[in-house]
Amino acid sequence: MPKIKTNRGAAKRFKRTANGKFKQNSAFGNHILAKKTTKRKRKIRHSAMVDSSNLKKLKDLLPFS
């Protein structure tokens, strides 16, 4: 049976919290910012928790985190 590997792309995007949930950063915050409103850019700066419907898939991608 092969070794279990961590998905490196997911490891760079998600961090597991102490309660076993996952934290993610918001998308769309790197370029083409002139057309986005100040309110929208401010909201993008904050991180969010991953939805519960995606937790099972993330636990498969990140078995050791």
Side by side, the strands of the main sheet go 1-2-3
Residue-averaged pLDDT, rounded?
A: 96
State the helical fraction. Answer: 25-40%
How many E-type strands?
3
CATH class: Few Secondary Structures
CATH architecture: Irregular
Strand percentage lies at: 5-15%
The helix-and-strand class reads alpha+beta
**Largest beta sheet, briefly?**
3 strands, antiparallel
- The tally of domains stands at 1
Q: Could you give the order of the helices and strands? A: HEEHEH
Q: Span between N and C termini?
A: 21 Å
CATH topology: Factor Xa Inhibitor
Uncertain runs are none
Characterization of the model:
- The chain has 65 residues and is of the alpha+beta class.
- The protein is 31% helix and 12% strand.
- The chain has 3 helices and 3 strands.
In short:
The protein is of the alpha+beta class and 65 residues long. It is built from 3 helices and 3 strands. The mean pLDDT is 96.
List keywords for this structure.
single chain; 65 residues; alpha+beta; Factor Xa Inhibitor; 3-stranded antiparallel beta sheet; 3 helices; 31% helix
